[in-house]
Design brief:
By secondary structure, the protein is mainly alpha-helical. It has helices at about 15-35, 45-50, 55-60, 65-85, 90-110, 110-120, 125-145, 155-170, 175-190, 205-215. The longest helix has 25 residues, at about 15-35.
Length: about 220
């Protein structure tokens, strides 16, 4: 017979461990679901993947923004850090092209991250602060390349951000070669001069690729 009594301070500990386990399960499930479906995915789907009741999800994360912030704060900070690192690259074109490629692949792999980066209203203060730091970091990257004379002087930070977002919507996670095709086209358009067009990967887009790019983006419930 157990010696633990209702007044024993050790009694609540299993419940706290269970709550923390459920939180970890929910976060892992939400990361999987949001990456594949975007932030409009329902909490019922998150609960199903996590193997918990939907009420448990709402108890741990009463608002969608709470869950978004728990998942994406570090990811947004990582994007900012990557932009800052690219701006400090001693080869400005290498830094800019590398950031564009990396950003497009990161957004292709995670639709939720793409939505968090693209629109305000996802997450709370800490995610918003990270997102607010991204624009100056990308602007610095653009200036660095322009001052070196390798990037067109009429390009702005939002041009680069839109290019990353658009390429990231091409083809889904498994179609990196197709995204590289469009990355080469965009980079040729961004550079000041090019002796000859960059050779493109031989893969061609399909009608399915086109449909995916223009798939309606729904606001999260």
């Amino acid at each position: 017979m157990s010696s633990v009594t209702p007044d024993d301070p050790a009694a609540p500990r299993p419940l706290r461990r269970d709550a923390e386990r459920n939180r970890a399960l929910i976060l892992a499930a939400a990361r999987e679901v949001f990456a594949a479906q975007g932030l409009d995915a329902g909490f019922d789907e998150v609960a199903r993947v996590a193997g918990v009741g939907v009420g448990t999800v709402y108890r741990r994360f009463p608002e969608r923004g709470d869950l978004v912030e728990a998942l994406f704060q570090e990811e947004v900070d990582a994007v900012v850090a990557r932009a800052q690192e690219a701006a400090a690259d001693p080869d400005p074109w290498h830094g800019l092209a590398g950031f564009l490629r990396w950003g497009a692949e990161a957004q292709a792999a995670d639709r939720g991250l793409a939505q968090v980066l693209a629109a305000a209203g996802h997450g709370h203060e800490r995610v918003a602060q990270g997102r607010d730091r991204l624009a100056p970091a990308v602007d610095a990257l653009v200036r660095h390349a322009q001052e070196a004379g390798v990037l067109r002087p009429d390009v702005g930070g939002l041009d680069l951000g839109l290019a990353v977002a658009m390429i990231g919507r091409v083809g889904g996670p498994e179609r990196a070669e197709l995204r590289e095709r469009f990355t080469a086209l965009v980079l040729d358009g961004l550079c000041v001069r090019r002796d000859a067009p960059t050779p493109l990967p031989p893969v061609l887009p399909t009608e399915e690729d086109m449909a995916q790019v223009f798939e309606p983006v729904r606001r999260p419930r």
